[in-house]
Amino acid sequence: MKKLILFLLLVSPIFAFAQNQFVVTGKIKNVQAPAKIFLSYRYEGAKHSHWDSTLVKNGIFEFRGSVTDTVIATIWVDYKGVNLDDIWGKNNVDAVNIYLTNNAIKITGDDSARYAKFSGTKINEDYYRYNKMINSAGYGSARKLADAKFIRKNPDSYISIIKALPDFRAGNPDIDELKDLFESLSENIRLSKAGLAYQQYMSTLHLVTNGTIAPDFEAPDTNGTPVKLSSFRGKYVLIDFWASWCPPCRQENPNVVKAYNKFKDKNFTVLGVSLDAGNGKGAWLAAIHKDGLSWTQLSELKDWNSEVVKLYNVVAIPQNFLIGPDGKVIAQNLKENDLEKELGKVLGR
Fold first, then answer.
1. Residue 168 · residue 144 · CB < 8 Å
2. Same structural domain, 46 and 157
3. Maximum alpha-carbon separation in the chain
4. Model-level pTM greater than 0.85?
5. Which of the residues 66, 72, 255, 270 has an alpha carbon 20 to 30 A from that of 292?
């Protein structure tokens, strides 16, 4: 009996530690040395992202750590094994998002991280199923039909509230449709942090809908000079909410740059609004330079406490609003090729 007690005393701290950490194990056959894998994530409200990296051995890599809450993370593949310069600001980056919890997560694939399968936790398994579904559905109305189907079949899935439901914010959101889908979710999901944020979003939805005048605001540019949205009246303006610490934003930036360069001579411009924090000005300026964002950039350097963010009820980034010359909202949440398509409609190709 004494030996058994001693054994339990010795091993129990190890078990306790293992239960309070995440272990991300990946095996992607075509990712070989000298490739390097990066892991990044950031808690809401945190001033900096957490970054980690590891080398690949025989297509296998591993990360260990702990998180205090469920947090979305990005796995990045640097095939040349150089550094982040091989990743930032480039199209077709091989990256995949996962949700970190203090559990074991497996990533398996043949040719890339982007198309790998991830498993080990319900949220990641749901996320994998969701991604497969929307990738086959495409965009527009077909995607919304797929989103609605996923929500109704998975009312107790966190993915329903943080991935599927936000797609209904694009274009001119239908408040009744949003309310119906939201109420189809389980009470557990509706009362989650994301659920409460979505309720707040719906309560103020009428403030920033298509056809309404975009709320005016003023914020400092990179030199500290105050700039008003209304000073751009007469132009088509894309208000682009982003941050240097936001991987999906950095992945989306090349699409915004492409659209800007194509339509900048057709009475169109972009107005960037960053959610960087007070001590993150250097990172903000470096990201502007690195990603080639040559339009006006504004930031109160208050992270999610920005008055502009609250005014536009931004609950996730990247997010954007296309404003017409008369100051009215034309479209919202235009990502990937949708931005260029919408600009082609209103400005001509």
1. yes
2. no
3. 83
4. no
5. 72
Q: How far apart are CA 196 and CA 181, in angstroms?
A: 14
The arrangement of strands across the sheet holding 22-28 comes to 60-65, 22-28, 104-109, 117-119
Residues 103 and 13 in one domain: yes
Q: Verify that 224 and 307 share a domain, yes or no.
A: yes
Domain that holds residue 134: 128-202
Question: Residues 214, 196: one domain?
Answer: no
Regarding beta strands 22-28 and 104-109, do their DSSP bridges make them parallel or antiparallel, or are they unpaired?
parallel
Question: Tell me: the pLDDT tens digits for 116-172?
Answer: 998 999 999 999 999 999 888 877 778 889 999 999 999 999 999 999 998 887 655
Same domain, 142 and 164: yes
* Measured distance CA(340)–CA(204) in Å, rounded: 28
DSSP alpha helix (H) spans, 112-246:
122-137, 141-153, 158-159, 175-183, 187-190, 193-203
- Domain's final residue, options 143, 170, 202: 202
- The pLDDT confidence band at residue 224, using thresholds 50, 70 and 90, is very high
How many structural domains are present in the chain?
3
Token pair listed for 105: 């997560």
The predicted-structure confidence for 28-84, as pLDDT tens digits, reads as follows 988 888 889 999 998 876 767 889 999 998 889 999 999 988 899 999 998 888 776
**CA pair distance 345, 222, nearest whole angstrom:** 32
| Domain end call among 80, 96, 120 | 120
177 and 238 within one domain: no
Query: Which burial class, exposed, middle or buried, applies to 9 when counting CB atoms under 10 A from its CB (0-12, 13-18, 19+)?
Result: exposed
Structure tokens at 122: 């319900």
* Residue 38 sits in the same domain as residue 159: no
In this prediction, residue 322 has a pLDDT band, given cuts at 50, 70 and 90, of very high
186/82 Cα distance (integer angstroms): 46
